[in-house]
Amino acid sequence: MKIGGIYMILNLINGMYYFGGTVSFKHRFATHLSLLNKDKHPCMYLQHAWNKYGGDAFQFTIVEVIKDKNKLTEIEQLWLDASNCYDPEKGYNNRCIAERNIGLNHSEETKRKISEAHKKIIKSPEWQANITKALTGQKRPDISARQKGKKLSEKTKLKMAISRKGYMMVSNAKP
User: Fold this and answer.
1) Residue 44 forms part of a structural domain
2) Whole-angstrom Cα distance, residue 156 to residue 154?
3) How many domains are contained in the chain?
4) How far apart are CA 78 and CA 98, in angstroms?
5) By three-state DSSP, how is residue 14 classified?
6) pLDDT at 49 (0 to 100)
7) Residue 54: which of 89, 13, 85 has the closest Cα?
8) Across the strands, what pairs with 62?
9) Strand, helix or coil at 49?
10) Nearest-angstrom CA–CA distance, 54 and 47
C-alpha cells in the first residue's frame, strides 16, 4: 500500500530544508536519492548542497501523512507558505507554488521552439566521421566484469543496503 503526504529533506549542518508532496514516500525518497547521487536533481540548490555537504548531512523526514490524495497539493502549499522554503536564505525549493508536473503537456508553440532549437545543432561531416571512427569495432563495456574483484567499503555496503530496503528481489529462474 502506498503511503503519501508531505515530506522534508533537512540539511543537518546549516538547517536549510526542502519540502515536497508525494503519493508514495518510498518511491519519492528513492527518486530523490538516486537523482542526488547521480548529480542530476532538478533542484539545483538542493543538488549543490548535497554535493558540498554529502548525503550524510541530510535527513529525509515524513512531516504529514495525507490519505486523501486530492488534498495533497493544497496541503503542500500550506507547508510551503508556512516554512517559506522557497526563500534562498531558508530553503532549497525552486518554486513557491505547489503543483504537479504529471500530465503536463507543452504548448504547440513550445514544441515548435524546441524542434527549431534541435534543428540548429549542426553536426559537420568531420564530427560525424570522428564519432563513427571512435565507435567502430568497439563492444559495449561490461560493467560487471570491471567491478569483479573490487572490494566495497563498509560505508558503501551500508548505503546500498539502505537504498534497497523494502525492495523484493525477484528471480527469473524457472522452477
Assistant:
1) yes
2) 5
3) 1
4) 9
5) coil
6) 95
7) 13
8) 7
9) helix
10) 10
Reported as a single tens digit per residue, the pLDDT across 43-77 is 999 999 999 999 999 999 999 999 988 899 899 99
Confidence of residue 102 (pLDDT cuts 50, 70, 90): low
- Extract the C-alpha cell encoding 100: 504537479
Whether residue 141 lies inside any domain: the answer is no
pLDDT of amino acid 86? 87
At position 33, the amino acid (one-letter code) is L
15 in any annotated domain: yes
State the Cα–Cα distance between residues 24 and 4, nearest whole angstrom: 4
Contact (Cβ atoms closer than 8 angstroms) between residue 76 and residue 83: no
Answer yes or no: is 131 within a domain: no
Q: What is the pLDDT of residues 141-170, one digit of tens each?
A: 666 666 677 788 888 888 877 777 665 555
What domain range is 63 assigned to?
Answer: 5-83
Taking the C-alpha atoms of residue 56 and residue 106, their distance in angstroms, rounded to an integer, is: 37
CATH number at residue 66: 3.40.1440.10
Q: Are 93 and 10 in contact (CB under 8 A)?
A: no
Neighbours of 114 (CB within 10 A): 11
Q: Which residue has the higher pLDDT, 93 or 95?
A: 93
As a whole number, the mean pLDDT across the chain is 83
